[in-house]
Prior knowledge:
mainly alpha, rod-shaped
Amino acid sequence: MNSNKAYVPSTEQLVLQETLNISRSYTLLRMKTDDVLINARNYPTYEEWQKEMNGIIQQWSSMEAKAKSLENMALKMLDEKVSIKFFNSALAYDKQEISRIFDNAPAGKKIATLAKHL
Length: 118
């Protein structure tokens, strides 16, 4: 690897990395939410519990914004043209064209003529 060139990740790599990051954040936030809800009676006052819940609600809002950003990244990735050229061109014949080629071929060479066209 040339030390003068910086690594630039592809759009797909960025989407995958952000998906992993958001998945981890979601899991942690979900566990935190469950803990606050399950252990509500362990808070000394309702106000302290409410303060904790408000913080979690803000974190969920942030998570929603990150998910929307990830969705936009994924949509951009779908818009990118991705193709691999296996063939220079492809020809398609319908049954009428195949019949015409076969019928116009010289006697005794009908199959060979058709094979050459296909």
